[in-house]
TrEMBL record:
This is Erythrocyte membrane protein 1. It comes from the Eukaryota. GO terms for cellular component: membrane. InterPro entries: Duffy-ag-bd_sf, Duffy-antigen-binding, PfEMP1_NTS. The lineage of its organism: Eukaryota, Sar, Alveolata, Apicomplexa, Aconoidasida. It holds the Pfam family Duffy_binding. SUPFAM superfamilies: Duffy binding domain-like (SSF140924). Residues 7-40 form the Plasmodium falciparum erythrocyte membrane protein-1 N-terminal segment domain. One of its GO terms (molecular function) is host cell surface receptor binding. Residues 110-185 form the Duffy-antigen binding domain.
């Protein structure tokens, strides 16, 4: 008696809300420090007139590619195509990783996630000036926009191959793109 919570769950919910509210409030202080601005990117030059990343990639993608190169390439400079997706890297979740994860047949094979990248679209990242955070965050926005463009194209191109191997998997290109970018985090 005498507590303001009905049970332990309510107590943890109340404490969790306080923590979340405090973190959100503190995050507001630094939010703009992480926000990139295309118009301030050192990569773009005359293309900096675009403030919308989607319009920049759609309308000026080829010019930008000439300035920055394909972020999903292999970095060798020899122009070879990189096999970025492979069934060898399909994530299988077995009983050791997820309890009670049985396949449709009831055995312990587990479910599979869609193709995973063998390499990230981060070839251009080492070229960023990490000593100047203002410059780096703006250039990073450009590189992330390029990576998203090429990642989407790569998934679209490889999706029929994946679907042929794992027919009826239920993994849509949107799911693949979401998981692909989740790999970065």
């Amino acid at each position: 008696g005498g507590t303001k919570d009905e049970d332990a769950k309510n107590m943890f919910d109340r404490i969790g809300k306080k923590v979340l509210d405090k973190v959100k409030e503190e995050a507001q202080t630094y939010k703009d420090d992480l926000k990139g601005n295309l118009a301030s990117s050192s990569i773009l030059g005359e293309l900096a007139a675009f403030s919308d990343p989607c319009n920049l990639i759609k309308n000026e993608g080829e010019k930008l590619l000439a300035l920055r190169d394909n972020p999903c390439g292999n970095g060798s400079g020899k122009g070879e195509d990189v096999s970025r997706f492979s069934k060898e890297r399909v994530d299988e979740y077995d009983e050791k990783k997820i309890k009670d994860n049985k396949s449709k047949g009831g055995n312990n094979e587990g479910e599979c996630a869609p193709y995973r990248r063998l390499s990230l679209c981060n070839k251009n990242f080492p070229n960023m000036n990490s000593n100047d955070s203002s410059k780096a965050k703006n250039d990073l926005l450009v590189d992330v926009c390029l990576a998203a463009k090429y990642e989407g194209e790569s998934i679209t191109l490889n999706y029929p191959k994946y679907e042929a191997i794992y027919e009826g998997s239920g993994h849509t290109p949107c799911t693949m793109l979401a998981r692909s970018f989740a790999d970065i985090g």
